[in-house]
């Protein structure tokens, strides 16, 4: 019997990420929220909880958007239950994914430390 390279939780997480991406996009537009997007969804093995990781276009606006998404979690869950073929839709927990912010900060630090072309020409 061939082994599976992926778990059911991974497949459900990917489907939730697609569906929640659309729902969050609509919520941002309808409720005039700061611009956010779904970066990942992690589902627990028992399928009771799904952690929804979001990123914000403006990091300082993230707490406002995160609070609003947490309030809309029940509405999102009902929409998912109607649209997906799952026996039980997991409870949604929204968390902020700061990996993009950290990557930008590292990039800024590296760019600030780069020698310019004029600096390298003086060393000859």
UniProtKB/TrEMBL annotation:
Pfam families, per database record: RBFA
Superkingdom of origin organism: Bacteria
Gene3D superfamilies per UniProt: 3.30.300.20
Residue ranges of the TM segments: none
Subcellular localization(s) per the UniProt record: Cytoplasm
Keyword annotations of the record: Cytoplasm, Ribosome biogenesis
SUPFAM superfamilies from the UniProt entry: Ribosome-binding factor A, RbfA
InterPro entries for this protein: KH_dom-like_a/b, RbfA, RbfA_dom_sf, Ribosome-bd_factorA_CS
PROSITE patterns in UniProt: RBFA (PS01319)
Quaternary assembly: Monomer. Binds 30S ribosomal subunits, but not 50S ribosomal subunits or 70S ribosomes.
Cited function: One of several proteins that assist in the late maturation steps of the functional core of the 30S ribosomal subunit. Associates with free 30S ribosomal subunits (but not with 30S subunits that are part of 70S ribosomes or polysomes). Required for efficient processing of 16S rRNA. May interact with the 5'-terminal helix region of 16S rRNA.
Protein family membership: Belongs to the RbfA family.
Protein name: Ribosome-binding factor A
Organism, scientific name: Dyella lutea
Protein encoded by which gene: rbfA
């Amino acid at each position: 019997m061939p082994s599976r390279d992926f778990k059911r939780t991974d497949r459900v997480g990917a489907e939730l990420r697609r569906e929640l991406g659309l729902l969050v996009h609509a919520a941002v537009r309808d409720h005039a929220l700061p611009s956010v997007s779904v970066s990942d969804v992690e589902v627990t093995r028992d399928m009771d909880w799904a952690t929804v990781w979001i990123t914000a276009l403006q990091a300082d606006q993230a707490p406002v958007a995160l609070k609003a998404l947490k309030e809309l979690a029940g509405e999102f869950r009902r929409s998912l239950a109607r649209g997906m073929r799952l026996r039980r839709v997991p409870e949604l927990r929204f968390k902020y994914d700061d990996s993009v912010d950290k990557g930008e900060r590292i990039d800024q630090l590296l760019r600030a430390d780069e020698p310019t072309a004029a600096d390298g020409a003086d060393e000859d």
